[in-house]
Write a structure and sequence with these properties.
The chain is an alpha+beta fold. Helices cover 40% and strands 22% of the residues. It has a five-stranded antiparallel β-sheet with strand order 1-17-3-11-12, with no helix packed on it. It has a four-stranded antiparallel β-sheet with strand order 7-8-4-10. It has a three-stranded antiparallel β-sheet with strand order 2-14-13, with no helix packed on it. α3 runs antiparallel to α8 and α3 packs antiparallel against α12. The radius of gyration is 44 Å and the shape is elongated. InterPro entries: Flagellin_hook_IN_motif (IPR010810), FliD (IPR040026), FliD_C (IPR010809), FliD_N (IPR003481). Belongs to the FliD family. Pfam families: Flagellin_IN, FliD_C, FliD_N. Keywords: Bacterial flagellum, Cell projection, Cilium, Coiled coil, Flagellum, Secreted.
């Protein structure tokens, strides 16, 4: 054997020119040795696919829980549709305690705030120039009794309003002036106390202007006895300042004369707020003048309730569609059978069965607050053999019209402490579904739900398999080096043998 025919390309392909072993040969040997590691990598891929599938289930289940929880909120059942025939006069809104109904309102006057304007301060050219005066004074805001006359000619008592520290007494703001102070800095000092005093200050053409932040009849006064003359220097003397006194709102509701020190009236209709926006228009003059009433109405908004139930049903179908796909065994008779990512998963199968049973069986054990209601009685039932959930809106509407409280209680009811507002003994269709869903989704310290525990199991197993794969890769690296060493040694041995054979052949040919 000679080496004349072995070129540079061949030397790259073979580890040795005598053994004929190439790097491809070693790759094939390593590939055969890698079969156990490939099996481990396939396991990791399968587990990662299952973990991702559970992540998708968790996301879909979370959306379902959110829709179920909407059925545990009082405003889902008691939202109101408000209407006003003249929004420029008055509007109405209501919370879940407000009653349905309509009311005619006539607004005679709006509540306004008292304003006190001082004389012009001519000692400085503008509000940012130092006054060069020293002293202090106190401004008082005093609520005044207001007894307007109703349409029947009798006086109407106005409930007192609170100011400053929350007491129906005068509110005071003390002002301390130093030589460097300006009209602007005095205003800043006063407004820093507005939250507690209800007195707000501003400057108009070097005039100090004080406004009550509360509407209603009130008066202002100044006490500068500790620093004589300082009030006059600021234009706040008796002969300098003028007052525009505020007034109470005066209106009638369904013919009853009412007055309040605010245009946002919250204590006339339970659960409702009437907002006064303008004075009612009148027709005629003098004794013949007639005011045009505005009709305010509140009606229960059942569309929000029905919409919440419909949304929950849709999300249930979306969730169950995903679960069904994950558990799909495909067609085992086909060679290219495609199965779901979680086929045979007992945990997911249990979730599927629990949800199917609960959405149609209604409240477990029945809801004492609504003993005669079931999911079917309010229009919730399966509509095909595939387990698609449906909402019969006609059936739902009829049940709601016949007994709205019973339908509401079927979905959710609870006991609420009148003093603390603490809710207890929650029950109903939505409560049962929320409890089941939460048992899978909860994931907090010391309280991990079924999905969190399942995912943790995947993570632990994947971590262990990756450790085994890493160790196996180290072994294969060492194995490759061992193969190179072995075949290199073989090639060296064969080279020596070839050299000896050549020598013997030459000796024989020489006749030695």
């Amino acid at each position: 054997m000679t080496t004349d025919g072995v070129g540079a390309a061949a030397s790259n392909q073979y580890l040795g020119q005598y053994s004929g072993v190439s790097s491809q040969t070693i790759d094939q040997l390593i590939q055969a040795d890698s079969i156990p590691m490939n099996l481990l990598q396939n396991q990791v891929q399968d587990l990662q696919g299952q973990e991702q599938a559970w992540s998708d289930v968790r996301s879909r289940l979370t959306n379902f829980l959110n829709d179920v929880q909407d059925l545990q909120k009082s405003d889902t059942y008691n939202s109101k549709v408000a209407n006003s025939t003249n929004m420029s006069v008055a509007t109405i809104s209501g919370d879940d305690t407000a009653s349905e109904g309509s009311h005619d309102i006539i607004v005679k006057q709006l509540a306004t705030a008292s304003k006190w304007t001082g004389g012009r301060v001519n000692s400085v050219p503008d509000s940012k120039t130092a006054l060069n005066i020293t002293g202090n004074f106190t401004i008082d805001l005093n609520p005044q009794a207001d007894t307007p006359t109703g349409t029947d000619g009798n006086p109407i008592n106005v409930p007192g309003f609170t100011i400053g520290d929350g007491k129906a007494t005068s509110s005071k703001v003390a002002v301390d002036i130093k030589p460097g102070d300006t009209l602007n800095s005095i205003v800043t000092q006063i407004n820093a106390q507005t939250k507690n005093t209800d007195i707000q200050a501003s400057i108009v053409d070097n005039h100090l202007v004080f406004t009550s932040t509360q509407t209603g009849k009130a008066s202002f006064s100044v006490d500068s006895s500790s620093t004589a003359g300082i009030a006059d220097q600021l234009g706040l003397g008796t002969s300098q300042a003028t007052t525009n006194q505020g007034q109470s709102a005066l209106f009638s509701l369904d013919g009853l004369p009412i007055t309040r020190n605010t245009n946002n009236v919250t204590d006339v209709l339970d659960g409702a707020t009437i907002t006064l926006a303008g004075v009612s228009a009148t027709s005629g003059t003098g004794a013949d003048a007639t005011a045009t009433p505005t009709t305010l109405s509140l009606a229960d908004d059942t569309s929000k309730f029905q919409g919440a139930v419909s949304k929950m049903v849709d999300q249930y179908n979306s969730l169950m569609g995903l679960i069904s796909s994950d558990l799909d065994p495909g067609d085992p008779t086909k060679a290219d059978n495609q199965t779901g990512a979680l086929v045979g998963d007992a945990t997911l199968t249990q979730l599927e069965e629990s949800l199917e049973n609960m959405v149609t069986e209604g409240v477990s054990g029945g809801n004492p607050a609504s003993p005669n209601k079931t999911s079917d009685s309010v229009g919730i039932s399966f509509i095909d053999k595939n387990g698609t959930l449906g909402l019969d809106t006609d059936k739902f509407s009829k049940a709601l019209k016949a007994d709205p409280q019973a339908v509401k209680d079927f979905f959710y009811s609870a006991d609420t402490d009148a003093k603390t507002g603490i809710v207890s003994n929650e029950r109903g269709y939505a409560t049962d579904l929320a409890k089941l869903t939460n048992s899978y989704l909860v994931n907090s310290t010391g309280n991990q739900g079924i999905i969190a525990l399942t995912t943790a199991g995947f993570d632990s197993t994947i971590q262990d398999l990756n450790t085994q794969i890493s160790n196996f890769q180290d072994q294969l690296t060492a194995k490759r080096a061992e193969y190179v060493t072995q075949f290199s040694a073989l090639d060296s041995f064969m080279a020596q043998a070839q050299s000896q054979m050549t020598y013997f052949s030459s000796q024989i040919g020489a006749g030695i």
